[in-house]
Design goal:
- The structure is a single chain.
- The chain has 9 helices and 2 strands; from the N terminus they run H-H-H-H-H-H-H-E-E-H-H.
- With about 220 residues, it is mostly helical.
- Strands 1-2 form a two-stranded antiparallel ribbon.
- Strand 1 and strand 2 form a beta hairpin.
């Protein structure tokens, strides 16, 4: 087990923040909804009010899902603050992250593949790509093997913007992870990877049933 952390650090890890970090922002340059996720709504999404879910709620690990949801909520709040300060829309950030990740791992990204990943309509995806290309964050180029195929790549500007946006968060998180040994980190990595796969499988199952496909547009 990791050593005990200070009460202040423990409070932060439980998501007990004193104020909404984006409250100082008066306008949203990303031209998207300014409604942010809340701890209350996240908890309600999991707990629900159906007494028939008792079996799920009594399952080992169910309470851990609440903690993971809080982690996701805080990460989204952080992303909201930094993307507004850089004048980027929410889907701009998701698109840049996806393309940079593909570039880093030697993969390729097409507009169609990115549209499916972000769950956007063709029109919304085109708007995102037009905006990011105009701002110098992404490039659209024809494949050398198939001129009909368009490939997306991140520019040095996108990578630099990403570092400016997320390095402060990483600098706060790495000391927390440093409290854990290699075996514990390996366990966490495996658990997170498996949980991520489980969510992807749940989404694929919904898509196969046609749930949520109508009216998919998304914010620019």
């Amino acid at each position: 087990m990791p050593p005990e952390r200070s009460s202040e650090s423990s409070a932060a890890s439980r998501g007990e923040v004193s104020a909404d970090p984006s409250a100082e922002l008066s306008a949203d340059p990303g031209a998207e909804s300014s409604v942010e996720p809340s701890d209350a709504s996240s908890g309600d999404a999991l707990s629900g009010g159906d007494s028939g879910r008792g079996e799920l709620r009594s399952s080992p690990g169910f309470e851990l899902l609440f903690l993971l949801q809080k982690f996701t909520t805080e990460a989204e709040r952080y992303s909201e603050v930094v993307r507004r300060r850089h004048g980027l829309a929410r889907n701009d950030i998701h698109a840049i992250n996806a393309v940079v990740e593909a570039d880093r791992t030697g993969g390729t990204t097409t507009p169609g593949g990115l549209r499916e990943r972000l769950v956007l309509s063709s029109a919304a995806m085109t708007a995102v790509l037009d905006r990011l290309e105009a701002s110098g964050h992404l490039r659209r180029e024809h494949s050398a093997e198939d001129r009909r195929q368009v490939l997306l790549s991140a520019t040095p500007s996108a990578r630099e913007t990403g570092r400016e946006m997320f390095d402060p968060m990483v600098e706060h998180m790495l000391p927390v992870l440093a409290d854990y040994g290699p075996e514990q980190l390996a366990f966490l990595a495996e658990a997170i990877q498996r949980l991520t796969t489980a969510i992807a499988e749940a989404r694929a199952e919904l898509n196969a049933r046609g749930v949520g496909r109508e009216g998919v547009g998304g914010e620019g």
